[in-house]
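> call design_seq(struct)
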């Protein structure tokens, strides 16, 4: 933030001075007790943080006990990027299994992470109530599933099929309507 003052002297010279108002910073504390100093407008993209600031002010550290340090760092990276470039709403259902056809290049690159981190980002976005990040991370999972068979999905997510062949046949029969169309 900056304030600009323009003054004209008696010799018709214009003098411009700019003073910078310091940004309000919040301190977010991760599950691992690491402290992140974050610009207020960045941190308040989280409805949870925004509500806490409205209730308690900006002087207190804000605990984020459900979010590990590397995940919180990644969430802050996302919020800083979208501070000046608002996230575009993702159309549902996804038109393509290639997420890069649906979101910006930056967002597509952002969710190219290990599955474990992706799922932790989903949990963090949900806990922190950052809808655009939750939508993006869930869209990534949806793109990973789109067009795959149940067996391929199990393999992708390391899911053990604990149905007997008879139970699986029964479930398929009961849900045949899902596969139609």
């Amino acid at each position: 933030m900056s304030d600009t003052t323009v003054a004209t002297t008696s010799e018709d010279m214009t003098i411009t001075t700019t003073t910078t108002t310091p940004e309000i910073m919040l301190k977010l504390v991760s599950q691992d007790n690491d402290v992140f100093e974050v610009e207020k407008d960045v941190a308040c993209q989280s409805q949870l943080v925004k509500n806490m600031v409205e209730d308690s002010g900006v002087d207190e550290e804000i605990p984020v006990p459900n979010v590990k340090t590397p995940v919180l760092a990644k969430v802050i990276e996302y919020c800083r990027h979208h501070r000046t470039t608002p996230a575009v709403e993702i159309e549902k259902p996804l038109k393509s299994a290639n997420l890069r056809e649906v979101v910006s290049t930056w967002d597509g690159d952002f969710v190219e992470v290990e599955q474990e981190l992706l799922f932790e980002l989903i949990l963090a976005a949900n806990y922190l109530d950052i809808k655009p990040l939750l939508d993006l991370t869930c869209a990534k999972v949806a793109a990973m599933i789109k067009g795959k068979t149940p067996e391929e999905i199990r393999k992708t997510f390391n899911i053990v099929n604990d149905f007997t062949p008879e139970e699986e046949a029964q479930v398929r029969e009961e849900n045949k309507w899902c596969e139609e169309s």
